[in-house]
Amino acid sequence: MNADEAVLRFVDEYSRMAEPYDASVVPRFAPFAAQLVAGAGLPPHATVLDVSTGTGLTALTAAKAIGDRGLVVGIDLADGALAVAQTKAARMGLRSLRFEMLDSRNIVYRGGTFDAVLCSFGLPAIGHEQVLREIHRVLRDGAAFHFVGWAARDPPSGWDAWDDVVGAHRTPAPSTTLAQLREANELVSNAGGGEAVRDPERLTPKMTAAGFSSVRATPYREDARFATTDDLIAFHGSFGATERELSEMAPEGRSAFRRALEERFREYRDGGAIRLRWSVVYYEARK
After folding, report:
1. Is residue 119 pLDDT above 90, yes or no?
2. CA angle (151 as vertex; 168, 277 as ends), nearest 5
C-alpha cells in the first residue's frame, strides 16, 4: 500500500461513517470550531476556505458569522460527509456557503482567492507539507490561515487507554477492509506525519517553509466528559477504522473488551462519568 492508497482508505471510511460522526463527534468539537472562527475575526464580506470540512461544522459556523455578503467554500474528499454538510446548510437556509469535493493537496483555485483559510482537525498526516503550500498559495497577501489541531497525546489525559484496550482485544482474523485500514494506520505511524502535525515545534517551521511570514501557536486544554461507557464507545465508534474493529470482534471478545474497558477507565471516573482531557493547539499563520 502506498500513501495515496492509504488516504483513499481513510476517505472511504469517513464517508461511510459521516452520519454517526456528525451525531456523536461533531457536537463535542463544536466549541473548538466556534473558538477558531471567533479568533479569525471574519468580516461580513469575507471569502473563506474551510479545508477538510467534513460534515461542515467549521464552514457552517463561519457562514453564520459572515452572513449573506460573503462566501464560505468547504472542501473535502469524502462525498458522504459533504452530503451531510449540504443537507445541514440547506436546512439552515445558508446562502453564503458551498461545498466541493476537492483534495486539499491540490486546491484548484487561483492564487490569492481567499481572505481567510480555516481548518479544524483536518490537516492530514500524509501530504501536510503540500497542503500548507496550497493554503498559502490561495490566500491573499496579508491574510491568515487559522487551524486547530491535536497536540501530542499526554498519557494522563486518558486517550491512550482506549487504544490499549482495543489493541488487546481486536480480532486476529480481520476482514480485507479492516486489514487494509490497519496497514494504512501503520504506514502513517511509520512515516511520522501524525506526530509532526501534533507538535508545534515541528509544524511551525513547516508553516514557515510553506511561505508564511509569521506563525503563532497557542496550546489549549479542556476536560472531556462522557456520561457513560456507552457514550465513550459511541464517540470512538463513529470513526470508521474503530467501528470496524468493534464490529469484527467476536461476541465473547466484545464482552471481554467491555469488561477491560470498564476496568481500564476506572481511574478516569469522576462522579460516575468518565473525565478525559482534550489537548489542542490553535495556530494563526499569516501570509
Report:
1. yes
2. 65
Q: What range does the domain containing 104 cover?
A: 3-286
Distance CA 81, CA 50 (A): 14
* Residue in 73, 226, 61 with CA at minimum distance from that of residue 138: 73
pLDDT at 279 over 80: yes
Helix (H, G, I), strand (E, B) or coil at 240: helix
Per the structure, the count of domains in the chain is 1
Q: Do 144 and 124 meet the contact criterion of CB atoms below 8 Å apart?
A: no
Helix-helix angle 159-169:251-264, to 10 degrees: 150
Distance CA 228, CA 201 (A): 36
The span from the CA of 200 to the CA of 218, in Å, is 9
pLDDT in tens, 178-226: 999 999 999 888 877 888 899 999 999 999 999 999 999 999 999 999 9
The strand pairing partners of 223, in sequence order, are 277
Q: What is the CATH number of the domain that holds 183?
A: 3.40.50.150
Q: Which three cell numbers stand for residue 25?
A: 463527534
Q: What is the pLDDT of residue 214?
A: 93
Coil, strand, or helix at residue 242?
Answer: helix
Residues 214-259: tens digit of each pLDDT:
999 999 999 999 999 999 999 999 999 999 999 999 998 899 999 9
Distance (Å, whole) CA 267 – CA 34: 31
* Rg over CA atoms, the chain: 19
